[in-house]
Write a structure and sequence with these properties.
single chain, 58 residues, alpha+beta, 24% helix
Length: 58
């Protein structure tokens, strides 16, 4: 079993236990995501560029 990462983050209204909001990823990838993800909340410009609405859920 792999850890789950929220597709739509909780701080911006993502449902915490909705199956459609969880993306299972290998532990080493989950660790990487958790390392860089705070940049989203910090307003890092790389997280504000134009892209697909739901890149992980399509």
């Amino acid at each position: 079993m792999w850890p789950g990462h929220h597709i739509h983050d909780l701080l911006h209204g993502g449902a915490p236990v909705a199956r459609a909001n969880l993306l299972p990823v290998p532990p080493e990838i989950h660790e990487t995501i958790n390392t860089v993800y705070p940049q989203c909340y910090a307003g890092d410009v790389r997280w504000r560029t134009i892209g697909p609405d739901r890149p992980y859920s399509d």
